[in-house]
Amino acid sequence: MKSILGIDLGGSSIKAGAVDPSCARVVGETQSVATPPGAPLEATASALAALVAAFPQCTGPVGLAFPAVVSHGITRTAANVDHAWIGTDAAALLTAAAGRPGFVVNDADAAGVAEMRVGAGRGERGVVMMLTFGTGIGSALFVDGRLWPNTELGHLSIGGREAEHIASARVRTEEGLDWPMWCERVNCVLEAYHALFWPDVFIIGGGVSERFEEYAGLLRSRARIVPAGLRHAAGVVGAALYAADSARG
Ligand code: BGC
What we know:
Blueprint lengths: L3 E6 L3 E8 L4 E10 L6 H13 L8 E5 L3 E2 L2 E2 L12 E2 H9 L3 E5 H12 L8 E7 L3 E7 L2 E3 L8 E2 L2 E2 H5 L1 H6 L4 H19 L3 E5 L6 H4 L8 E4 L6 H15 L1
Parallel strand pairs: 1-4, 4-8, 9-14, 14-15
Antiparallel strand pairs: 1-2, 2-3, 5-6, 6-7, 9-10, 10-11, 12-13
Helix pairs in contact: 1-2, 3-8
Bound molecules: beta-D-glucopyranose (BGC).
C-alpha cells in the first residue's frame, strides 16, 4: 500500500514521516525542521511545503497534527501558536502548501488514534485517556475505542492554574524540575483528570515518553499508567491515519 505523509507540528519542531496506513508504521526515516517561532501562518505554510517536498514518494493526501482545537479543518484556538490561527482554514492552508488534499486534526487526538490502533491502547475497552506532555498538555479521550475529539484538558484549571502551566514538559525544563518534582505535579494533574473522567488507563505520550522508564515509578493514579507504544512518533502516525481515513470519506 502507498505510504501517506503525516506531519506533527510541535512547539519546537515540525516532524514528518511516510506512514504505511495498512500497518500504521513509519516507513524509513522521519525528517524535521524547526518550528518558526510562534508558528506564524506564512512561515509555517513554507515549512510544511518544504517537508512535503522532502517526501516525493508520498503522493496521496497529507495529514497534519496541530496543537489546537480543530473543527472541520478550521483551527479554533491558539494556546501556544500565533493567534492568527484562530478561525483559519488550516486544511485549506495545508492543501495549498502541499498541492494536494490536506487534512488537519488536533495533535493529541492524532497521537491517541495511533496509540489505540497499534500502540498502548490497542484492544483497550472502557475509558482511555491519552496525554501528551510537550509545550502544552494534550488530551485524547476514548470510550470503547471511540474518540471524543478536542477535549483540551491541558487547560483544566487545577488550584487556579491551567494543568499545562503546572506540569507540561516545557514547564519541567523551564523551571528545572527533576523527575520527583515534576512527577508530583503530574500526579496532581492525573488525580484531577481521574476525579472527573475515571479513565481505566492513562497513556503517557509526547517527547518525555521517550524517558518513561526514568520516572515511571514516581507516577501514581488509581488508573493504570502506561507509556505511548509509538513514543514520540504517535502524532506523525496519527496524522497520516487521519488523512487516509478522511480521504476515503
Ligand atoms: C492545546 C491543545 C494541544 C496541546 C498539546 C494545548 O495548549 O490547546 O490543542 O493538543 O496543547 O499540544
